[in-house]
Amino acid sequence: MPGEAAGPPNPLENALVGVSYRRIPTLLPGVLSAVVVAALGTWLADRIGTDVLGFSKSPISPIMVAILLGMLAANTVQLPAILQPGIRFSVRKLLRLGIILLGIRLSLLDVLKLGAFGVPLVALSIVSGLVFTTLIARRLRLPERLGTLIAVGTSICGLSAIVATAPAIDATDEEVAYAAANITIFGALATFIYPYLAHVLFGTDPLRTGLFLGTSVHDTAQAVASGLIFDQVYSTAGRPTIADVTVVVKLVRT
Question: How far apart are the first and last CA of the chain?
Answer without folding.
Answer: 46
